[in-house]
Amino acid sequence: MSANDRVTEINHLIDGLKDKYPSEINAFLVFMGKAEGNPALGMAQKELINVALSVAAQCQWCIALHVKGAVAAGATRDEIMSAGFMAVLMHGGPALMYLVSLTEAVNEFLPEEKHG
After folding, report:
1. CATH architecture observed for domain 3-109
2. What is the separation of C-alpha 70 from the centre of its chain, rounded to a whole number of angstroms?
3. 65 contacts: CB under 8 Å, gap ≥ 6
4. Where are the domains of the chain?
5. With DSSP H G I counted as helix, E B as strand and the rest as coil, what are the percentages for the chain, rounded to 5?
6. CA dist 30 → 11, 86, 115 (Å)
7. pLDDT per residue over 15-35, tens digit each?
8. Mind listing the pLDDT tens digit for each residue in 45-101?
């Protein structure tokens, strides 16, 4: 499954939850908007933190979503991979395995850069 497929699944999930559980998902989305809206950190910094947390949490959907967000916010391949390695530093070998998903997502969302 591609990173884009995972982001599409997230969007379908949220749309379905809005129909069946609007108060719960809307409360989460409001909280997310407030947390992301704080100006103390730029959006690229926030997304890089989210990338690291996604790798540590071993969540392939989160990795896809936040790599896409980091790219959209202007983060570079090296910044994204560095965030992934910070997760490995703090979470160890299991997080290292999720650099596979991270690398795949970076390659998908930054296709113009050489993969090496």
Report:
1. Up-down Bundle (1.20)
2. 7
3. 6, 7, 10, 54
4. 3-109
5. 80, 0, 20
6. 16, 29, 37
7. 999 999 999 999 999 999 999
8. 999 999 999 999 999 999 999 999 999 999 999 999 999 999 999 999 999 999 999
Please state, in angstroms and rounded to a whole number, the distance separating the CA atoms of residues 58 and 95. Answer: 6
Indicate the residue type of 86. M
Structure tokens belonging to residue 102: 């991270």
The predicted model scores a pTM of 0.89
What's residue 112's pLDDT? 74
Measure the CA–CA gap between 63 and 67, rounded to whole angstroms. 6
Burial class of 99 by CB neighbour count within 10 A (0 to 12, 13 to 18, 19+): middle
Taking Cα atoms as reference points, which of 53, 71, 70 lies closest to residue 62?
53
